[in-house]
Amino acid sequence: MASASWSANGSALIEYDDATSTFQRVAPGAVAWPDGPLTPVALAEEIDRFARSHRIVAVALDGPQGWRDPATNEELPGVGRRCEYECRTQGKTGVYPVTYPRNQRSWIEFSVDLFDALLARPGVALANSGSTPMIDDGYVVLECFPTSTWRASGLKALPGKGKRPDLSPYLQALSNAFGLPPFATSSHDDLQAVVAALAAASALGGPASAIQRGKAAIMSADSNGVRRRLEGFIWDACTCATPGTTVPVTPAVPTALAKGVGAVYVTKGVLKQVNRSSDSKQAQIAFRGIAGATKANPRRVTLRVDGDDYTLVVGDSHAIWPSHQDAQTAECFEKLFALLADRPDQRVPASIINHPWA
User: Fold this and answer.
1) What is the pTM of this model?
2) First-to-final CA distance of the chain
3) What would the pLDDT profile of 337-357 be if each residue is shown by its tens digit?
4) Domain coverage including residue 27
5) Other C-beta atoms lying within 10 Å of the C-beta of residue 252
6) Contact, 67 vs 228, CB < 8 A?
7) Co-location of 197 and 285 in the same domain
8) Per-residue DSSP letters for 173-190?
9) What is the DSSP letter of 67?
10) How far is CA 230 from CA 97, 122, 128, 224, in A?
């Protein structure tokens, strides 16, 4: 799901047979998007039109349906919703209007508004319990995160579109794992939409196991009396009868760090303070084995953590602060902080890309 342009939205249609418990048809790029301004209401209209004309029974959207519950225990790991913690999403939806990173706020609000626009239509219901029945003259809507479905099924997750991966091996692996009929696509977005459709099929009891991540959605009024949807499930499809675990434990960094390798982490105390105040300005990333700096004499460093690179401004001897970042590094800081907040107090290895050691 994209908010920038119609063409950036992927789509797919999957059909399965209840009697044989097999997938019968996979159609990537099933929706012909229109021209004109893209708004949540306009996108909802197109999805609803397509769903009713094709007798769709479930629609899965790759985007958040709501916000973090302010009543969430502040000592729990993570700065987003519980489903985002369990699925290890890169972006996090905090207590309204906080998002990680901040530049995702417009996309997140677009996605939340899209859910609202669809759920306001007759015969449309949210998949918000362990049992998701089909609806006569309507359909259910659910949230998914395709990367989590790849992982849950023991498959290597499709890399981000910006990395321009060859889709062929991923398409083949997905087809083999789920027993999909032959299909082809050259669109990264449409292939991810196929995975989203698998989550929708599994939620309705199709030929795959469904996994619910997180907590059921609730509606709650904020301090200004505005009712907002909070939390909500992310649905995964899994090829195994017994779904796997959620967030794996990250191995501790060895006492003696290898040359050119440091460690970064978010302390439980910092995480608690950020969650208590809902203020991302309180965030900080502690580090070890990385040369420090001063506010008056900062330095830029690129760290590779969990396979991704983050360029940051270091202006302290033991911690990286949001106030020291510039326009180019602020997003990296917020993404890395959100990643590490899922594993508080765990020292995560960080390869130093542009350090004098390298």
Assistant:
1) 0.91
2) 39
3) 999 999 999 999 999 887 443
4) 6-238
5) 11
6) yes
7) no
8) HHHHHHTPPP-----HHH
9) B
10) 12, 22, 12, 15
